[in-house]
Design brief:
The structure is a homodimer. Chain A is α/β, with parallel strands linked by helices. Chain A has one domain: HUPs (Rossmann fold). Chain A is built from 8 helices and 5 strands; from the N terminus they run βαβαβαβαααβαα. Chain A has a 5-stranded parallel beta sheet with strand order 3-2-1-4-5, with helices on both faces. In chain A, α7 packs across α8. The longest helix of chain A has 16 residues. Chain A is globular. The first copy, chain A, starts with 5 loop residues before the first strand and ends in a 14-residue tail after the last helix. About 8% of the residues of chain A have low confidence.
């Protein structure tokens, strides 16, 4: 039997959560990764998530299917809405916001943590990704953690369940520098909201814009594979 | 267009949530009911839930499929564990506890509420049903509400999202009296953890025990249909 502590890691196939997983492994956690098939437009990110979990040394990777698309209301899951181009000056809540997504994801992570006997859940939300998403803010994470400790058997029994959001105060550039120091190969991560089936990025959506600026901030080459037709 | 406020109601097909729905309708809410197919052993309760939603006058009823069984750890979803008989003196967290179940259910309700523009979510948790379930306590509901107001667009914009748990301080007998006053037909609700395919109750599980005592407390005839082989 290992003495390592178990942790549940929310893994999307993107740059941020790959960095979080590498960090949790470097801290000595046995990592159980969870991804979601939630009707997102590109399934390619799940393929990337599984590969990242294996390469970085996770103990297990699970994909849970949930039907967020049934609710509609987001350009990320609603085929009737188009994904807008990145606008750095726009601070309103964007149309790509998925209602209560992080709350649903963290709730599933909490359930798995309880079954595993894990007291640590890691999530890759950060201040830059906030860009108007209410469920990426530190006060939200703190409130979820408080709720989680009242919701679960372990919490009631006096153990403290911690929601780790180690990237929350970092810029995209700092996240990239942290990940590179941990050995993350960012060519194996995807961020684009409009990935094609080969995993090539559009270069123009919000997520591509933040990622591109991140590599510039970090002063590092951008290993992202963009589509030939990209309008960057 | 109606001026009625919309509410999302978590509806299980059981006695408690039917009472909650009847109460919300009597308060003038347009009710959107949500049930879950989460690998519970008896699907019959979903049939009852749909019928209750229609009879009591809900605007819509949705069944969302989620895979709680994949986590294991509960006698309600794990075929390898047997459901224990009711023991009124046992205050430990029971084996029928499903990890983080109410957190997951409320998270989905929150997502739907946000899409609908609803600021009210109703859930039928109560003190008696607590019997060791951490996520049926008032402090848990308050913490979820605080988190919900930080998680959502409407919350950020200054609206207050309320999680109503109108049964939380009521005994089973008081719930039954409240429901009867609202016209709920409890013969159309199911509580048993081990329902058969015809919707007949076992009479011996925790949930049957609490329900049976409730009708006695209320001084009302018990309309529950028990199996002929029941050992009551």
């Amino acid at each position: 039997m290992s003495d390592q502590k178990k942790a549940v890691i929310l893994l999307s196939g993107g740059l941020d959560s790959a960095t979080v997983l590498a960090g949790a492994i470097s801290e000595g956690f046995q990592c159980y990764c969870m991804s979601f098939d939630y009707g997102q437009r590109h399934q390619t990110e799940l393929t990337f998530a599984k590969r990242i979990a294996t390469r970085l040394g996770a103990v297990e990777h699970r994909v849970t299917t949930i039907d967020l698309a049934a609710f509609g209301g987001s350009a990320l899951t609603d085929e009737g809405l188009s994904v807008p181009a990145f606008d750095e000056s726009d601070l309103a809540i964007p149309i790509t916001y998925v209602p209560a997504r992080n709350t649903i994801f963290l709730s599933f992570a909490l359930a798995w943590a309880e079954v595993l006997g894990a007291l640590d859940v890691f999530v890759g939300v950060n201040a830059v990704d906030y860009s108007g998403y209410p469920d990426c803010r530190p006060e939200y994470i703190a409130a979820f953690e408080a709720m989680a400790n009242l919701a679960t058997r372990r919490g009631v029994e006096g153990a403290f369940l911690r929601i780790h959001a180690p990237l929350i105060a970092l810029s995209k550039g700092d996240i990239i520098l942290k990940g590179l120091a941990l050995g993350v190969d960012y060519s194996q991560t995807v961020s684009c909201y409009q990935l094609d089936e080969q995993g090539a990025a559009c270069g123009v959506c919000d997520s591509c814009g933040l990622r591109r600026i991140g590599f510039i901030e970090a002063g590092q080459p951008d290993p992202t594979r963009y589509r030939a037709t990209s309008t960057r």
